[in-house]
């Protein structure tokens, strides 16, 4: 005669649901920049300064050509520039650096670019004023760039205020391209040993190779 199972008995360990401790649970928002979660090394300051200078030259050129309309277009450009080429403005693309959204390991989009570049876009709005105010614009530009440069030097990851707000970090594009893990690869990535398989090899031939192996 079979005995009925005790309703109060605990199921075997193999059938119990796996629960993670609070310390081991992954954070839904990913690692926050400025803390130990960022895997990216600090980018050199010189290419960042040169890239920003080139982007400001775009603003200057547009303002000189069409004045107020050009200044407004320049302000929009500075605001969204880092989302144009998957984390690269024109200046950053030429200098080989890019802005990474650290929680997703992807290039910054328009939203992250707008958050991190808001102080720079204000300079574009100042350029909409009369030419007599351009001396004020130059002084404001030097003040903003100087403060951001000092903060980038002192911060261990080179973060400025906009990066802290947008959860972004400027990195060397070659570092990201050379490491699939840092580039956010994983979903849809080929299995190890299959990355260099020629495209002309058919699926049937690839399956035959796996069966023989």
Q: Would you kindly provide a written description of the structure presented here, covering whatever features stand out?
A:
Strand 1 (97-101) and strand 2 form a beta hairpin. This protein has helices spanning 45-66, 68-80, 90-95, 110-116, 118-126, 134-154, 161-166, 173-177, 203-212; strands spanning 97-101, 106-107, 168-172. The chain is globular and about 50 Å long. The model is unreliable at 13-36, 185-202 and 209-213 (pLDDT under 50). The longest helix is centred in the N-terminal third of the chain and has 22 residues, at 45-66. It has 213 residues and is mostly helical. It is 46% helix and 6% strand. Helix 1 (45-66) runs antiparallel to helix 2 (68-80). It has a 3-stranded antiparallel beta sheet.
State the end-to-end distance: 52 Å
Number of strands: 3
The dominant shape is globular
Largest sheet: 3 strands, antiparallel
Q: Count of helical segments?
A: 9
Class computed from helices, strands and strand pairing: mainly alpha
Rg (C-alpha, Å): 25 Å
Widest β-sheet, arrangement of strands: 2-1-3
* Helix content percent band: 40-55%
Uncertain parts? 13-36, 185-202, 209-213
Mean pLDDT: 73
Strand content: 5-15%
**What's the order of the H and E elements?**
HHHEEHHHHEHH
Record the SSE blueprint.
Elements: H1 45-66, H2 68-80, H3 90-95, E1 97-101, E2 106-107, H4 110-116, H5 118-126, H6 134-154, H7 161-166, E3 168-172, H8 173-177, H9 203-212
Antiparallel strand pairs: 1-2, 1-3
Helix pairs in contact: 1-2, 2-5, 5-6
Key words describing this protein structure:
globular, 3-stranded antiparallel β-sheet, single chain, disordered C terminus, 213 residues, mainly alpha
